[in-house]
C-alpha cells in the first residue's frame, strides 16, 4: 500500500477508535445562551450560533433596533422570545432546522422546542438599505410546506480553529473583530488594522517601511506589501486565510499581503493566537489570521476617503464600490477599491533626514483591488460557493544604498495578484456534509531600476528582476455528528488535502533563473466532544469539553510530519471558563528561504569584528554561506481563562498564556561585532583556525565550493584569518518564547438607542530566547531594536446611537534597548491616541466619518543611527505621524 495512504488510514483509524470509546452525553432540554445587549441584527446572529439553528430575516426590519442581554439556560423559543420582546417582529418555524423572523404586530413564537436543533445557521447581515430589501414575507403555505420540512441545512458559517462545521471550539484562544469593531477603529486598510493589534509585530522587510532596516537594493519587499506577524515570530509563521483558504505569499516578503484585500469587503477578522498546524498544516506556528468576507450584503454603497499627514507626504486617496444581492437560494457580493498613495520621503521627517538622498520611507503606489464572492443552492442538498480576488499594484520607490559607492536607485514594481477558490457542499444524510474545493493563487511581480552611476551589465529602466509565487490546492472534507444523546452531540471531521507550491525568480540582466517547488499531501481528522453540559452538570462542573485533532503532512522535499493537538475546556461555574491545549507544529523552509541560501553560497573576508588579541577587529574574519536548511518544529502550550461576571452580563474578560519552544528555528545569522569574543553564546557557529592551512582547508572543503572575496582589503587571501562564521539563513538549535494576552470587552445599553462600548487588548512577551547549542547561553531578543517589545496595548471606548458615534483608542508600546549602541542605549516608550466620529442619515443613507490617527502627532522614539543613518525603529513605530481623514459613504 502507498506509504502516504497507509499513514492516512492509520490516522483515521486511531481517531475513530478514540471516538467510539467516548461516553454519550445526557439528555438536555435547554441550551446555554450568553448574548450581550447589542444591535438586534448582531443578537440574532449570536442567537443562531448558540442555538445551532438556521435563522433568516429581512435586514430592513431589524435596522437600528436593539436587543436586551440574555444569559442563562433557556429553550430555543424562550431565548428568541426574550430577544424579540418589545419589537414588532415574530418568529415562525419553517422546518426543524430553520426559523423565519417576520415583520408583524404579533410577537407569538410558533416553535417546537422538542425538535433536535441543526448544526449550521444562515443569517442576513443588517448592513443594507431599506430601498433594496424584499420586505414581502413568505405566505403561510410556503412557510409550512412539507417540502420545506425536508430541506437540509447547507449554508455554512466559516469557523476558525476547527474543521468541524457549526462548532465553537472553546479550547482555542480567538480574538474576533466584527464589522462594528472594524468601523470603530478608523483605519483605512486591512493592513493598518492588523498592524494595530498588540499581538502583531510589524514585519520588518514584510512592511513597506521595513526596507529602511537594511534590505539590499530595497527589493526584500518589492510588492510594497504588509504581512501579518503574530508574536513577532516572522510572517512565514503566521498563516493568513481568506474565507478559510490560503493565498499565495508576496514573493520577497514570504507573507500574504494584507493590503490587497479591500477592507469594505470584510465581515469579520478572526485572530487565532495558538499553533494550529494540526488543523491547517505548516506555517500556522504563531497563529492564524482568517479574513471572512461579507456573505449576504444586499444593496450598493459608494465610499470615498482622503487621508492627509500633518507633517506632509504620504497622502492617500481611496475610492470603493460595493454591490451585493441576495435571493432565497444564494447571494453575490462584489467590492472594488482604488488606493492612490503618495510617497513619504526621508527628508520629510527629522529622524530620517541623514539618510542618503533620495530615499523613501514609504513608496508611492496605485493599487486596484477587487473581490467577488458568491454562493448558490443548486438542489435541496447541494450548494456551490466561491470567491475571487484580483489586485494590481504599481509602486515607485526612491532608494539610495551604500555598496562600494552610493548608488541612487529608482525602483518601479508592477504586481499582479490573483486568487480563486471554488467549492461545493453536499449533505447526503443527517447533518453530515461532504465539502470539496479547489484553489489557485499567484503573485507576479516585475521590477525595473535606475542606477546612478549605471550598474555594470544592466541598462537602466529595463526589467531588472521578476518573481512569481503560486499555490494550487485541493481539499476534501467530511464532517458531521457521530452520535447525539439528549441534544449533546459528538462531532467529527476527516479529510485530505493536496497542495503544490512554486516560487521562481529571474534576474533579467544576468539571465539567472532560479525556481523551487514542492508538493504536500495531507490527511487530517478531528473531533469535538461535550462530555458534561448544563443538563448533566454537577457542583463545580458546569461544562467539560474535549477537542482533538491530528494532521499528517508529507512534503516532497522534507518528508513527513505528524502534528497532534489536544485541548480541554472546563467551566466550574457559569461565569468562568478555563481552557488549555497542547500541540506541535512544523514548518518547512519557504521557497524564498531556500533560494536565498542557494544564492548566498560564497565566502568573503570582512574586518571590524573584535577578536581575542585584536579588539579593534583589524584582522579579517571569514564569513561563509550556510550549507543547508532543515525544517523547524515546535511544541506549543496555551492556557486561558474567560470571565463574565453575572452582575455585568455584557462584559467579558480573558487571560491567555502561551509558550512556544522551537527546534531548528530558521533565523538570520546573528553575527555582530562581538561574536568572536562570546563563545559561550554563539558556540558551534564560531569556527577557529589554528593556522593559515586550516583556514584554507576549511574553504576548500565547503560543499558545494564557494568562491572567496575580500571586501576588507580588496585582496584575496586567507593569511592571518583565524575565525569563520556563517551568514544568511540558518537553523538555531532552539528558540523559546512565552507571554500573556489580556483582553476585555463591555457593551452597555443606555437610554433609547444609546450604546457604550469599551475594549482592552494587551500582550506581554516574557522572552524570546535563542540558544545556538545545547550548552550555550541563551540570548533574549525581546525588547531590543528591531524585535518585538515586551508590552503593547490598545484600549478603546465608543458611544453611539442611531445617528451618531464617537470612538477613541490609546496605543502604548514600552521603552526598550537600543542595540545599535555598545553598551546598549535606551529607546523611549511610545503612546498615541486615535479618534473618530461619524454621522449617519437613515433617510438618505449617507454616512460621514472623520478619523484622526495619532491625534497628538507623536514622533517615533529616537534611536542611535542604524542602517543608512535611520534614527527610528521601523519595526516598532510609525513614521507617518498624525493622519487626518474624511470619509463619505453613500448607500443606494
Could you please describe the fold and organization of this structure?
The structure is a single chain. By secondary structure, the chain is mainly beta. The protein has twelve helices and 45 strands. The protein has a 22-stranded antiparallel beta barrel. A hairpin with a 2-residue loop joins strand 15 and strand 16. Helix 2 runs antiparallel to helix 4. It is globular and about 90 Å long. About 8% of the residues have low confidence.
Summarize the structure.
By secondary structure, the protein is mainly beta. Helix content is 10%, strand content 48%. The chain starts with a helix and ends with a strand.
Search tags:
single chain, about 900 residues, mainly beta
Rg, Å, rounded: 28 Å
Largest sheet: 22 strands, antiparallel, barrel
- Estimate the helix proportion, in percent: 10-25%
- What is the tally of helical segments? 12
The total count of strands amounts to 45
Shape: globular
- Flag low-confidence runs: 8-28, 104-152, 215-219
Can you give the mean pLDDT? 84
By helix and strand content, what is the structural category? mainly beta
The N- to C-terminal Cα distance equals 60 Å
Strand content: over 45%
Secondary structure elements and their pairing?
Blueprint: H1 3-20, E1 31-35, E2 38-39, H2 40-51, E3 54-57, H3 59-62, E4 66-67, E5 70-74, H4 76-84, E6 89-93, E7 98-103, E8 109-110, H5 140-143, H6 146-149, E9 174-178, H7 179-185, H8 190-195, E10 238-242, E11 245-246, E12 266-272, H9 277-280, E13 287-293, E14 299-309, E15 316-327, E16 330-341, E17 344-345, E18 360-362, E19 364-379, E20 382-402, E21 406-429, E22 432-452, E23 463-485, E24 488-507, E25 512-532, E26 543-555, E27 559-573, E28 576-587, H10 591-599, E29 603-606, E30 621-625, E31 632-643, E32 651-668, H11 679-682, E33 687-688, H12 692-700, E34 708-710, E35 723-727, E36 729-749, E37 755-771, E38 779-780, E39 791-800, E40 804-813, E41 816-818, E42 825-827, E43 830-841, E44 846-853, E45 883-891
